[in-house]
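User: Just a sanity check before I run the rest of the batch. Below are the structure tokens for the first item. I only need the designed sequence back.
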């Protein structure tokens, strides 16, 4: 049988999550069917899960698209260009060649051909049926299996090598839309006449990509095949299993990596003459610090989501310690760290990841940071500036008349076209102005003390720690998380007919102490999550999964 190198592996981290009964359903119209291209991270994870982490993927992925604040939504808006298909073809060929090489074939194929130089349909069929079920997230149809076997047989006959023929068949699967796109399918809901729901295999894919950010494993697909995912008990059993797995950490990291716009780090740069400590290694550690802080607080400690903006607990490496200017005992790797009471740093907003990502290469930017806080963490829209705005005054950090960013922005806002937007973002962005573009603390700029006071939605604060506390108490902070999480899981924004459902999720989140695992479980065990709007009914006849 095919050996799965991660699925079923011993847990490196035990996450004990208490199972709870299904909550009372709230009226929801459901939403449209979603087709999403697998992301670069998902592609790489799937290949590692099925064939092993040592399989090298050579090629360039096309850029993802961010929509509604998430790449997970943009994945439903992108296709594959001709040049992109060439890259997928290159990756597929390289992957398939490694799967059948002498190092891997004995472990991954699960059978041995009668002759290494001739076709062996029984062995090839066993391999393609097993691996295809994982790649396509459902059993192969008879036609799909026949087509793949034909590729393999033709390759074997032409090249005189069974394994090279299998590689050709596997290549065709790895570059197939059935693998590259997560295509959802709907069916009539027998429990609710006149309504539609996702099929069991589509449910399995939603669950797995939401909680683990990868393809469903064998046990989840088996539960789908047996119809268990269409029962409350069977669904809860699988959700509990996935949420008790250490792989929930990877799934949670994937969500926050998307929500926090961390893909932008790939293009982040700084003026190294001004910030000599800036290196790619710093950026890697900065992202990891935030993701470790988040997952430890939310999953291991089962903490209140809001406390991420006030907590002084985090993790530190020696490299980060040089920027935070704190002692780090470990010589390499990570160690838990807590900033002292009264320290200017508290919460995610004062970590290097947020501060450096939302700044210009040569200076800090209250405007960029304030906009990021509004759009990323509060889910609010901020208009783009007019094309004819003159930013010279704001950018001139050497102006002797305006030594601090606050002074330069006050002068800049005298223009009527600028005042409206800056009123929304500057008063909060200035709260982080005691940290430079890299994220190092500095109490003064050009010899003038920095005033980090401000206000958020009418609530005043005096510094960055105070800003974190105001954000902690702002109801938009938690409603934004709920909205982003549901949008991420469903691959689309909530429909108008789901308004009551979203209200329920917000209320449920609050009643459970703003704990993320409880919110995730509520979403993934609810019928509303899998309901398809009636407008999708017409597409059912052309979207059947014949294997189901």
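Assistant: Here's the designed sequence for the first item:
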């Amino acid at each position: 049988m095919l050996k799965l190198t991660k699925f079923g592996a011993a847990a490196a981290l035990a996450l004990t999550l208490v199972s709870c009964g299904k909550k009372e359903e709230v009226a929801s119209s459901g939403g449209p069917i979603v087709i999403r291209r697998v992301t670069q991270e998902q592609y790489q994870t799937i290949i590692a899960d099925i064939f092993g982490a040592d399989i090298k993927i050579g090629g360039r992925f096309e850029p993802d698209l961010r929509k509604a604040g998430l790449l997970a939504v943009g994945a439903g808006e992108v296709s594959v260009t001709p040049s992109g298909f060439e890259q997928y073809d290159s990756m597929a060929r390289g992957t398939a060649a490694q799967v059948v090489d002498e190092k891997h074939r004995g472990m991954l194929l699960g059978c041995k051909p009668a002759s290494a130089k001739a076709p062996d349909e029984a062995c090839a069929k066993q391999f393609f049926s097993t691996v295809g079920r994982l790649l396509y997230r459902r059993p192969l149809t008879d036609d799909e299996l026949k087509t793949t076997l034909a590729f393999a047989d033709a390759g074997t006959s032409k090249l005189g090598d069974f394994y090279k023929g299998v590689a050709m068949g596997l290549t065709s699967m790895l570059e197939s839309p059935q693998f590259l796109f997560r295509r959802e399918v709907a069916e009539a809901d027998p429990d609710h006449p006149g309504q539609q729901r996702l099929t069991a295999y589509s449910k399995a894919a939603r669950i797995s990509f939401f909680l683990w950010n990868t393809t469903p494993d064998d046990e989840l697909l088996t539960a789908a095949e047996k119809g268990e995912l269409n029962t409350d008990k069977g669904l809860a059993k699988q959700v509990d299993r996935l949420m008790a797995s250490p792989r929930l950490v990877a799934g949670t990291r994937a969500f926050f990596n998307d929500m926090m716009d961390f893909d932008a780090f790939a293009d982040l740069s700084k003026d190294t003459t001004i910030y000599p400590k800036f290196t790619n290694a710093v950026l890697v550690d900065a992202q990891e610090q935030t993701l470790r802080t988040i997952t430890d607080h939310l999953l291991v400690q089962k903490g209140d989501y809001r406390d991420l903006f006030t907590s002084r607990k985090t993790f530190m490496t020696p490299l980060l310690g040089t920027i935070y200017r704190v002692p780090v005992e470990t010589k390499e790797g990570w160690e838990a760290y807590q900033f002292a009471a009264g320290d200017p740093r508290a919460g995610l907003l004062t970590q290097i990841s947020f501060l450096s990502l939302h700044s210009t290469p040569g200076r800090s930017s209250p405007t960029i940071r304030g906009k990021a806080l509004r759009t990323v963490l509060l889910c609010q829209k901020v208009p783009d500036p007019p094309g004819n705005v003159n930013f010279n005054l704001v950018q001139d950090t050497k102006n002797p008349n305006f030594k601090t960013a606050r002074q330069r922005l006050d002068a800049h806002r005298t223009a009527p076209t600028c005042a409206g937007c800056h009123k929304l973002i500057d008063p909060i962005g200035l709260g982080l102005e005691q940290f430079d573009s890299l994220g190092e603390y500095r109490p003064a700029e050009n010899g003038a003390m920095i005033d980090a006071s401000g206000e958020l939605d009418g609530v005043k604060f005096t510094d960055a720690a105070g800003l974190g506390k105001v954000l902690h108490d702002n109801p938009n902070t938690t409603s934004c998380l709920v909205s982003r999480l549901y949008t991420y899981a469903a691959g689309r924004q909530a429909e108008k007919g789901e308004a009551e459902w979203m209200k329920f999720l917000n209320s449920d989140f609050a009643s459970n102490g703003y704990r993320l695992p409880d919110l995730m479980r509520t979403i993934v065990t609810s019928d509303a999550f899998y309901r398809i709007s009636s407008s999708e009914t017409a597409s059912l006849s052309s979207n059947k999964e014949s294997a189901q």
